[in-house]
Amino acid sequence: MSTEHAVELAHFGLTDREIQQVLGRVKVRDVDYADLYFESRQAESVSMEEGIVKRATKSVSRGVGVRATSGEKTGFAYSDELTRRDLEIAADAARYIAASPRGVDALPVTHCERPPHDLYPVERAAVEVATKDRVALLNEIDAEARRYDPRIKNVIASFNTEYKVVIVATSEGRLVGDIQPLSRLQITCIAEENGNRQVGTFGGGGRIGFEWYREGDRHLHYAREAARQAILNLDAVDAPAGVMPVVLAGGWPGILLHEAVGHGLEADFNRKKTSAFSNLIGQRVASEMCTVVDDGTLPFRRGSLNMDDEGTPTSRTVLIEKGILRGYLTDRLNACLMGIPLTGNGRRENYQSVVLPRMTNTFMLAGESEPQDIIRSVKRGLYAVSFGGGQVDITNGKFVFSASEAYLIEDGKITKPVKGATLIGNGPEILTKVSMVGHDLKLDEGIGTCGKEGQSVPVGVGLPTIRIDEITVGGTKV
Fold first, then answer.
1. Domain termination residue (choose one: 173, 205, 234)
2. Residue 101 has pLDDT above 60, yes or no
3. Angle formed by the axes of helices 218-234 and 131-148, to 10°?
4. Which of 199, 407, 464, 470 holds its CA 20 to 30 A away from the CA of 247?
5. More confident residue, 62 or 102
6. Is residue 331 predicted with pLDDT exceeding 70?
7. Do strands 316-321 and 442-443 pair parallel, antiparallel, or not at all (unpaired)?
8. Are residues 275 and 222 in the same domain?
9. Nearest residue to 46 via CA among 131, 140, 139, 171
């Protein structure tokens, strides 16, 4: 471990003794558990539109979130000042919210340790790139996208990075820290022909440095893909409407799995019995061909973490195994209240946010079918390659997703591109209608951001090519 990757309390101007004193104020006899989450974050962003840099920002934030839990009740407070007095005020507020009298019985913290994983050994200099280099990258993207086809009339590109240092101190005596780099490049192209305007979007990222985007001209590939999608949609026909078989391509279409199924497997919804998957552990909820996992331990992936935001090492959690529901994604509170394993999925947007059980990288494992055989098995249906927006109702699993790139399947062959296609269904029900799973598991390019209760966190998704025998497609052509 390099010196740069050693995380110490001195980064926040604190000592072990001061941490212990603050924990002593919040961890009292009626509090089950308490922790302090320290975060230092530096973020930079440059965006370009119409060949002009429209926005360049840099922000620095630092603070602490203080939490006390008592049964199902959580007291939480935060401070963006790290003086001893400010920490004590936040600790007192969290304790009072948990409605507990004052007293001290927190275990002493030890030296700051590193998590057992080291999934993203990226040096700070690889993330903190000069603005001129970021602008040069975006200029090359703009030129490449316009070179792809003269019908590309506008290119919108942005490059974002952050470098975050976190330390978690707990009333159980643990003190653990991590350094978390993150970057993302996203491109949107607008094509126009005879008054017809269409959009294409592509991008990628992860817990990686700036030069990764230049390797093999990856950034130019992203530009061409965004332009290709926009141009493709200029010639798209109206999507058919009705119930039909749908083939989902590998990679980003896993967002449907994330939304329609993944959220329903987060422990808080199941503890409150508001999920369509509540009380179904050990029961069949999907086709026997479906095995779904959440894995926060994949190197350099956008959704991966050495530790979650409670200091628990991330893990690989089997959620659905050959169609049988095996478990839920847990943070510490919900794991304790439900008496189920802790999976390392406690996440928060920043130090101002409470911990929630959240996904990391969620995907379906590969099957045995040839992708081309899956397509050939469909006489008339839809082949969905990429999705845009969508909505899901966690309580019943019903979803609506719009396809940003999709094609007709006619007599076992991919034919015309279509526009205006939406997929409408029920997550748990859809999984029971998966009849073929390809051997071509693919993870997304690394642009996913998940929202829950007003908080956003980076995530990953993945999917092999799969056939869903029957799903409602909303379109404009019957």
1. 234
2. no
3. 40
4. 199
5. 62
6. yes
7. unpaired
8. no
9. 131
